[in-house]
Amino acid sequence: MKKHILPAIKLTLVMILFFTVIYPSAVWGIAQFAPNSGKGEIIEHNGNKHYVNIGQSFTEDKYFWSRPSAVGYNAAGSGGSNKGPSNEEYLAEVKTRIDTFLIHNPGIDKAEIPVDLVTASGSGLDPNFSVQAAKVQVKRIAKIRGIDEAKLNQLIDDQTEKPLWGMFGPEKINVLKLNIALDALK
Amino acid sequence: MNTEIIGIIVMFTLSILLAIPFGKYIAKVYGGEKTLLDPIFNPIERIFFKISGINPQIEMNWKQQMIAMLTINMVWFLLGMVILMTQGSLPFNPDKNPSMSADLAFNTVISFVVNCNLQHYSGESGLSYLGQYWLMFLQFVSAGTGMAAAVILFRAFRDKTTDTLGNFYNYFVKSCTRILLPLSFVMAIFLAFDGVPMTFEGKDTITTLQGDSVEVSRGPAAAFVPIKHVGTNGGGFFGVNSAHPFENPSYLSNIVEMVAQLIVPLGMIFAFGYFIKRRRFSWMIFGVMTVGFLMLAIPNINMEMNGNPAIASMGIDNSLGGMEGKEMRFGAAASGFWSIVTTVISTGSVNSMHDSSMALSGMNELLAMMINAFYGGCGVGLLNFFIFIILAVFISGLMVGRTPEFFGKKVEAKEMKIAMIIALLHPFLILVGAALTTAFPEHGALTLNNPGFHGFSEILYEYTSSAANNGSGFEGLGDNNLWWNITTGFILILGRFLPIIGPVAIAGLLAQKKYIPEGDGTLKTDTSTFGLMVFAVIAIVAALSFFPSLALGPIAEYFSLN
After folding, report:
1. Out of A12, A27, A90, whose CB is closest to B75?
2. Coiled-coil segments, which residues (chain B) (predicted)?
3. A150 CA: distance to closest CA in chain B (Å)
4. Percent of chain B at pLDDT above 90?
5. Within 10 A of B442 (CB to CB), how many other CB atoms are there?
6. Which of A12, A69, B39, B107 would be a feasible disulfide site paired with B485, CB 3.0-4.6 Å?
7. Minimum Cα–Cα distance from A161: chain B residue
8. Distances B98 to B93, B127, B131, B524 between C-alpha atoms, Å
9. Would you call A27 and B192 a contact, using CB atoms and an 8 Å cutoff?
């Protein structure tokens, strides 16, 4: 073992230089040409900046609500609820979310509420929800904002992101972009 | 057909199609043949070896290689303890994160040295950027270590009768520079342009559309995330790993990260065949592994797409599947598929929270790690599978009443003893760990996030993940305390080095034996019959050892839900 120690230390040091200084510096250099110089994609809106990929909490009735989050959409950290499927406390919480939703959205049938709107995402920062999650909120928003329902449905269609190249994965909507577009709608 | 299903089929097919030529490339690298990247890496490696005073041409026997491996791993461990326990006062710490406690540093360093990446901290609050970089370094070298160990096996079956099996440093460095680095670099650039941050600035504060003020963690993640997958490490930059929108921003990045974790383990299988010039044997291994993989993956995709029956019974629209702990941009199908890829391969990165998987999906994730030989981690997957091959050769030999032979070498008592010890070590570590922790509620029950059967699954999962060097978790578990950090730390060490040393020892012993040319009576090991035999051995070992514990956890939970 003794004759291996010195070579091992030297090899470690030279590889540290290569893999933690040269490699990431090269990546960093190239990333300067990426959107927002590799600091995360942003949208500027009314003088505020928003990260496109980081979901935000929307709880006011005039906005499309985002999915529940175990960390309250505070991206200082991240986390899911980690509740198991049979956890009684958790199932009661889901029921409460359904009831709350029904109170704020009169005239909606329970069977129209999609599951993503009452379950928390893995990261707690999910920027998306399903198309149905938007549609089920149209009635409420139309009433509060006094906008035609058809106009809102059109907005949802415009904001729907199709599966990758039209073939792979689920359809989804970026909640932040949708709500910014909603604010712009008059 | 459903776009979510097509997405999965494409991911898997693409991985296999890329892995076959890549396997050929790997075989060339280890065989010292000419490759396209020679002009770049020949001079770099020359510098490495010159500075460290190593002659990569010196041939070593298997024992010398193992000593070299253990020594350099020890150096990484000691250096890592120093870095993580002092990171709070070192540079590159814009978020002012604290140094790690001794037990957390112990667990974290071991976990990254052994290619497991169990993470009892969250990246956003637990590490400085210097700490992250150190762990990124370990992700390269720990994967390289596993691959170098597998090459010893390659050599043992290429040369007819030999003592020396190559040079550890040579294989180790080449694995890092010529295999892991090029893949990581290309992927890092893709990810940076797809929305993964690559910045040294700390947290940003923003005002949301609703007017709340929140912080957003960032960091040099684009360089870190690729090696996490290419090296089958799985340690995330952010707390929630590849579920984080900065770590895996789109369905396309999800495909890339999926292919990245499959390509080296799959490539190693094909490389083995090219290297020893027995390509049919590679296909036998690939066949057995793929059948096992699909038997776990397909039910998971199905169960996650069907969702939670307890939520369906509340009368809402459950057509998206089990969305608790899942991201909308991936959907239930790709999350269910990932949950098995990451557990069979010992990556342990997650794109959904496994704690919230359906009951039997959780069982399949556990089984994938309990078997730990379908594809498996960088290099070590093949070593684990080799143990089952030796067992199958022995049993087949007994069944037909002949001396068991493998590639013209007699398998005798000494090799069988080693194989048995390694095969039984894995269930021993998992079950003893889980039993002890369950017996002491102050260490076990009090740290759980869920009651009842699922709570037991959380304990079982943590030890299975440690022993399999996987690194994923039922993350509800409150695992950053003395008990969990220390017990899993020791299991990590045993679960890493013994299953490397054991198979390498068998290969070394077999290589020294006289070569007996194959005749009519030789057991053919590249046939589907033999594949079935290997599969049966795996199924029996796994089923008999683990069924009782699975019955107490996920199986009981499943029946309580229905």
Report:
1. A12
2. none
3. 23
4. 65
5. 8
6. B107
7. B329
8. 9, 7, 11, 58
9. yes
H/E element holding B67? Answer: helix B62-86
Count CB atoms within 10 A of the CB of residue A147. 16
**Residues B187 and B256: beta-carbon distance below 8 Å:** yes
- Whether the pLDDT of residue B148 is over 60: the answer is yes
Mean pLDDT of B413-429: 93
pLDDT at B151 over 90: yes
In angstroms, the CA B198 to CA A24 distance is 9
> How far is the C-alpha of B513 from the C-alpha of B458, rounded, in Å?
46
The rounded distance, in Å, linking the Cα atoms of B127 and B195 is 22
Q: Are B147 and B171 in contact (CB under 8 A)?
A: yes
Domain ranges of chain A: 1-33, 40-184
Question: In which band, very low, low, confident or very high, does the pLDDT at B446 lie, cut at 50, 70 and 90?
Answer: confident
CB < 8 Å to A20, chain B: 133-134, 136-137
Q: How far is A158 from chain B (nearest CA, A)?
A: 17
Rg from Cα positions in chain A = 23
Q: How would you write B295-342 as a 3-class SS string?
A: HHHHHHHHHHHHCCHHHHCCCCECCCCCCCCCCCCCHHHHHHHHHHHH
Tokens read off for B71 = 């020594």
Structure tokens at B245: 């929108």
Q: Do A14 and B188 touch (CB under 8 A)?
A: no
Q: Which residue of B has its CA nearest to A47?
A: B207
pLDDT confidence of residue B1: 57
pLDDT of residue A1: 63
Residues of A with CB below 8 A from B214's CB? Answer: 56, 73-76
**Which pair of structure tokens corresponds to residue B351?**
């794109």
pLDDT at A76: 87
Q: A137: exposed, middle or buried (C-beta count within 10 Å: 0-12, 13-18, 19+)?
A: buried
Residue B252 backbone dihedrals phi, psi, to 5 degrees:
-65, -45
Residue B258 amino acid letter: M
**Phi, psi dihedral angles at A70 (to 5 degrees):** -75, -15
Name the pTM for this structure: 0.92
Which two three-digit tokens encode residue B5?
A: 């299903």
Instruction: Determine, for residues A80 and B324 on separate chains, whether the beta-carbon distance falls below 8 Å.
Output: yes
At how many degrees (to 10) do helices B3-31 and B251-276 cross? 40
Tokens coding A108: 């909606």
CB-based contact A77:B217 (threshold 8 Å)? yes
Neighbours of A43 (CB within 10 A): 13
Cβ distance A88 to B310 under 8 Å? no
Residues in chain B closer than 8 A to A45 (CB atoms): 209
Task: Answer for the pair B389, B534: CB distance below 8 angstroms, yes or no.
Answer: yes
Q: Please name the helix (run of DSSP H) or strand (run of DSSP E) that holds residue A154, with its range, or none.
A: helix A149-159
Count of other CB atoms within 10 angstroms of residue A17: 14
Nearest to A87 by CA among B345, B152, B362: B362
Measured CA to CA, the distance from residue A56 to residue A68 in angstroms comes to: 10
Backbone region of residue B213 per phi and psi (left: phi > 0; alpha: psi in -120 to 50; beta: other values) = beta
